[in-house]
# Entry
Amino acid sequence: MLIVIALWAFAWPVRRAFIEVEISANEGWNAYFADAVFGPAPLYPPVEALIANNYPPVSFAIIAVLARWVGDPVLVGRLVSLTSVGAVALWIALAARSLGSSRAGAIVAASWFLATSSRFFQFYVGANEPQMLAHAVVGGGFVLFLRARARGGRYAPAILTMVTAGFVKHTVLAMPLATMAWLAWNAPREALRQAVLAGAAAAVGFAICLALFGHDFVVNMLLPRRFVLDAALGAIGHLQWTAVALLVWLYVGWALRRDPDARFVSLLVAVAFVLFFVLKTGAGVGENAQLDLVIALAIALGLTYTHAPPMPLLPAAGLDARRAALLIALCLRLVATTRNEPVRLVVDPAGFAREVAARSAAFAAIVEQARAAPADAVCLVVLACYRAGKPFVVDTLTLGERIAKGAHPADAVDSLVAAGRLAVIPADPRASWRVRMPRD
# Structure
């Protein structure tokens, strides 16, 4: 049942990747900067611009190179994301096996991740966004670390891979921090050596970026951002998506606390849990802040299924009954959601096809409106301006943060509109999968 739900859920982002509708606000943003790799626009704009790029350069380079073969960076980004999700699921299975999970437990771990990410993190699974690619790279480094740990050394390839992941996207922190913490506790001298290696590799990476992009790279990466504690507190509700796995591991991790592998998994879960709230304090940070926790809990589920120690709620149940109860609870949580696109693909194909057509038509209309604008345009559906061939001149999130910090005047956009140099293209809710349409 869990495998079926996982494949069924994943089928939707695969299908959606080929629909000409915006998936997330980041898609057009990433497409513009992928074009900048080989185009005339700078990858890291100057500080006076009304746009900024606070992502490291590696993902843009990868998408730009692949787009030369495929022709469309948006489609390339979506396909790279889908492939990366599969890679992360594989790394989770291998990590769970390295930490003492059975084969069946590893399959449970990978399947739950695939289902959970596809059901609840749809703006990153199969979207033109480097988040999943970064997780795929750091996850590969984590598996290399676990294998080196089992063999007693040679951590350098793992550490260098994790540093590389930071140049894909710099928010994949749980696995690097957990590995360094484990080394610091169990092998302090080795931890010091690997910390020096990681610092040196990061310094070389930054030096290369400075040589290629100059001071604007630093200015963009240090984009002003407000930090709001209420945003983190409000994110507590998002834990519902992982609540079953989290609550079960709180018990199982304690029951297995004498097992060194289980202690390492608990360390990873704890680091990811704290980072989730820390990252959510940043203005504009989305649900991707929780993906490290999803991955950590997936690995934990591999051990949970394998050991399934007796629990207070099921004191007399045997091992198979405890495993079955775990799987049923996971499956019930996965289907208990209003995000019903995978269901509609099967049970309402005609109605769903009409919705897809309506969304595609709405998106195409915004593209034509932007294309017809006599001046530069700012689209609230950013991908529409990209498809219309308009230059990227205003990034509303970046501008809002810079205005809040006093780096730009409050009327930066209004003055351009009043002078006839900028047209504002309004959004149509149907043109983005971010907004749910009413049923027929």
